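> tool_call: predict_assembly(chains=two)
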Amino acid sequence: MLGALILVPAVSALVVALVGRARPEWTRLVAVVSSVATLAVAVRMLAEFDPGSAAFQFVEHRAWIAQWGISWHLGVDGISLFLVVLTALLFPLVIVGVDPHHDERRYLAWMLLLEAGVMGSFLSLDLFLFFVMFEIVLVPMYFLIGGWGYGERIYAATKFFIFTMAGSALMLVGIVATVVLARDEVGAVTFSLPELQRAAEFSVAEGRWLFASFALAFAVKVPLVPLHTWLPDAHTQAPTGGSVILAGVLLKMGTYGLLRFAIGLFPEAARWASPLFFTLAVVGIVYGAIAATMQRDLKRLVAYSSVAHLGFIVLGTFALTTQAVSGAVIQMVNHGVSTGALFLLVGMISDRRHTREIDALRGLQHVAPVFAGTFTVVMLSSIGVPGLNGFVGEFLVLIGSFGPARWWTVVATTGVVLAALYLLWAYQRVFHGEPDEANRGFAEMTWREGALMSVFVAIIVATGVYPAPMLDRMRPSVDALIARVAGG
Amino acid sequence: MDVGTFAAPAVQWWALSPLLALAGTALAILVVGALTPPWRAGLLPLATATGAGAAATLAALQWTTAVASPTTLVGGALAWDPYAVLVTVLVSGSVVLGSLALSDWLWRERAETPEAHALLLTAAIGAIVMANATDLVVTFLGLETLSLSLYVLAAMNRRRTESQEAGLKYFILGGVASAFFLYGVALTYGVAGTTRLGAISGELGMSIGVPRNDVLLLVGVAMVLVGLAFKASLVPFHSWAPDVYHGAPTPITGFMASAGKAAAVATLVRVMLVAYPSRADDWRPVLWAVGALTLLGGAVLAIVQVDVKRMLAYSSIGHAGFMLVGLEAAGHRGAFAEDAGAAAVAGYLAIYALLVLGTFAAVALVVGEGDAATTVDVFQGLGRRSPWLASALTVLLLAQAGVPLTSGFVAKFGVVRAAVDAGSYWLAGVAMLSAVVAAYLYLRLVVAMWLRDAAGPAVAVPPASRVVLVVCVAATLGIGIVPGWFLDLLADVASFAS
């Protein structure tokens, strides 16, 4: 079943690329059908998931490169479950809801390949397979930003590619070293994560070096300050669909990787490094918020708000208490939903007005009240207002981190206030006031856009009001991870 | 020795058959070509490819025997072991693909002559002899045969001064490098009293009670290293490569980067591991430093180029650095890595040969008549003008950058794995970082092809070049996605007859 989540989009990408040339009218249909089919598989997986188990479920294990101990090894647990579902959900929404404006065939092929890569990253239980998926994601994203983005798109795409690749270059050395150093304890050369976690023992120095090589790759991807500079550029220049996916799931590959691989394999080193990560996370929260406040470009503002939000996730991840880690995981999903939705809305503004300058927009709520209302809900979710999804994650993170990282948490709390500041201030400038000549023609939300946004709003409200089903399914895996870190 | 009792060494015809096929084809083309009126277009490359293909097939058929019982040929002059067979197949295969690409180039330049093809074959003979020699004097013979053929091939385009300049520059600098190599051989002989690789190792291995001039020996090893480093274009002996790669006819550049580089690196592997293993602790740090310099130098100098052929020349230097990472790993004695390192280098050679042949075949088509327009701008909008050609070139470039699911990633992973296994973490790290810097260069070409628009005519892809591109791309993806069979082959490769 899990293999289908990767192979269906991958094969459809090929079909779209090759068949689409002869039959351009089919490309969209193939893309929509295959991404919806992937979603259907993910939903079935969600329904059949055993909430009481901490183990990996639906495991698929086939030899791939037997000579090197590498296998096609997939599985899902409470930590990756909702990220997989989020991925499966966001792609069809973006494919159906966002128009690429030109070269649809190639755009859709890259999108589907991207989906396959992201799925593979969240599902892989083999270090090599994970690395392959983690790297392969760069190629479609690079072409999406470079081919369908805004003005400075090539600069942004190249920066994205080089930054991320530079981060993960040393991770490859780290992965090989992990496997080689664990060879004697495990009894064989294997890249299997469960096997390595079961048997491998590293000396303190080894563990810390290896942790560093993994953590650097993920820190670039998250991104943590000061490695974040690629993000505002990539987000701002990417096409709307690309931004949604980038914020929604690609950044999560970093935080997920930290949790699953860096912390999961090297618990001692993770505890040792946690003050550094607390500091970087809190700096990210405050810096991201302040930088967001200063932005003139609405999209750049949302991009910097991502830096701040991801700071909360990293803080919770390294606090390593049940509440904090659950909060971090649920916040990964929440941030994907609410920031994805914000990027969609900003994309709609940009399509209508051909500018995203905050100064050029005014009084939109008079001409487009439904649009403004949707924006308000999504914005409040991003701020973390109780009753909406953002609150659940941030609250759990703050509560859970207060014990192990008290003063950092105190500073992080200011991030919540600052989030209200920059988003509400932006809202005020864009939506309040009297619309001038240019903004009077701002079109109200269409039915298609409304249907698209209603999915996001539904998730935002549902998670905010009743997060228990999600938290229950995460709980066993999160507890198992924390027990491992505490014991190791 | 009394002349009367001279016993000719036994000649193993079957084992030598690949070399004989190459030599026979070369001679036939030269003699028949000189005596007959100009051949019909396509016949010359067909004959060359058939001869080289036969050589590759014959060598491939010998694989199992060579794995089972590696030995030496013609009185201990040439090795007949898996490594040798692999190099033979690789070089002969490069001739097949190279002659196909070259035929389209010759046709476009209206310069079809038999010499070009015959020289390709003699270069291959030189490359094979050089890499498989088990006697330093024979190595030198091979090296000179290869080099002389390449000097002429580089200068083959008589209408272009750059080509003449490239040939002359290569000739002069190559002569100096050959001299270094020969002096190194002489010094080694002075210490060890023999030029046989195995015998040198045996002589140097006896450590107790033998008075020996270590300075002489180390200078000798260093000079051999310099000579081979020049041929393999390792920093700081690389300065000829960009000029020659730029000036030479583009398909010849591809051949130099594949067969020429493979022969030089394979020789380096054989000489270092067979003749001087007991001095590994002396030469390994040198290779470490040269490797790091080559990796970084190749990558950093590549990204500031504006000319595509020079860019690819520096990228080829960087790839040689990766090969050195594998050799450095093989220099750690006693480790499990000894085999892994040599095998990883062999895999890298084979994979890179296919990548670079395909890349230059595509570049040769794009740069147009006379190899005149070689700046990055020429590639703008190629994705729209010739989508298939651009797709093929993109796959090959991404593979060179080391993107997963391509053969380039398998190659890089192999050497990094060997290096880490041997404990050379820092060198592995330098290699990976240089790969990131180099990625920028490949991206520049990809950007030009796909993300920038420029009007222009579509680039026609003649049938021979089409074959080359299809083979190279298929191998790139095949090895990249299902590397198992390729690694199985490599598992046997690292045994050396001496």
